[in-house]
Amino acid sequence: MKPGREAGPQSTGRVVASHGRDASVVDDSGREIHCRLQGRRLAVVCGDRVRWTPAHTEAGAGLIVEVLPRRNLLARIDSRGAAEPVAANLTQLVAVVATIPAADFGLCDRYLAAAEWNGLAACVVANKCDLDDASGTLAPTLEDYARIGYPVLRTSKRLAEGVDALRERLAGETSALVGQSGVGKSSLTNRLIPGVEAAVDEVSRASESGRHTTSTASLYALPSGGELIDSPGVRDFAPPLPAPRNIAGGYREIAVAAADCRFRDCLHLREPGCAVAEANLAGRVSARRLDSYRRLLTLAGQLAGRGPPRLRR
Ligand code: GDP
Ligand code: ZN
Q1: 131 lines ligand 1 (CB under 6 A)
Q2: At what angle do helices 105-117 and 287-305 cross, to 10 degrees?
Q3: 73-230 CATH
Q4: Pseudo-torsion of CA 115, 120, 123, 128, nearest 10°?
């Protein structure tokens, strides 16, 4: 290799923030390096493991030359209906619901399904547990989630215990808090990462004064262990849907029951010999989850009719 240009030693690192062709990488010793992406074809997202080399560019001190294989790549549906990658190498999704605004369990199911489709662990956080649930549906629905094996945590920004249990759940994982707007994800994030609010302000000021930044995510090391990937675009992302036949894989108790359906390609609608319908009668699949599954199946069918979502680069 010629001396000088790009002859530096290559190291590995983790992308902790990415904006267009710029990214911040933390190397194995914990140092943060501002990097540029080599060439036009390379694209990184928060959470990526990369190979980089020291290089002096106008944007920083490193050049990312390769993205290492991803365990998973989480995408969201953007405003134009295209799938846009938001984070790589997550291990856990934390679906947050609350009493106010009234919990949207269909959305919660979709996040839990996205976790199943991507091989991630998942748990449900019921925030604002200091407030009464006027609807009366929260407690039985949370019980149903716990019954099918999702850890359920009750938290409040006013109480320490719940947040401590959440900290324990996050330790050793790379997680994202997701859920509808207003359920308290920012408040929880501020409790988990002291000073994060100031850091986020800095990012938005930088983006106001310069280039466009869409859904810039950041990866934070939690003081109590584990990592959190956070951004406005991650917090309430709409997960893309797979083909209709794969929707059931996102509903773990339905997937278990489906093994005994008479037809291999049973969609658990009204087919004869459907073991999911039987499991519903026997109380192993709740009516609400079965209905939620069928709604998502209908939506996936409508989307499939329009062709698969394009992956934006
Ligand atoms: P996000 O949109 O999910 O990030 O929600 P925010 O964190 O911005 O919270 C939305 C509103 O709910 C704010 O007015 C918070 O002060 C309030 N809030 C958040 N957590 C709690 C909680 O545990 N209890 C109560 N009573 N209010 C909360
Ligand atoms: Zn069936």
Answers
A1: yes
A2: 70
A3: 3.40.50.300
A4: -70
pLDDT of res. 45:
95
User: In the CATH hierarchy, which top-level class contains the domain 11-67?
Assistant: mainly beta
Confidence (pLDDT) at 202 = 54
pTM of this prediction? Answer: 0.89
Q: How far is CA 201 from CA 155, 195, 204, 205, 249, in A?
A: 25, 10, 5, 6, 39
Mutate to test the pocket of ligand 1, among 97, 104, 187 (most ligand atoms within 8 A of CB): 187
Q: Give yes or no for residue 168 CB within 6 A of ligand 1.
A: no
CA–CA separation, 109 and 140 (whole Å) = 15
Task: Please determine, for residue 68, whether its predicted confidence score (pLDDT) is greater than 50.
Answer: yes
Task: For residue 97, count CB atoms less than 10 angstroms from its CB and return exposed for 0-12, middle for 13-18, buried for 19 or more.
Answer: buried
pLDDT one-digit tens code per residue, 144-179:
999 999 999 999 988 888 999 999 999 999 999 999
Domain boundaries 244-304, corresponding CATH code: 1.10.40.50
Using 50, 70 and 90 to split pLDDT, how confident is the model at 235?
confident
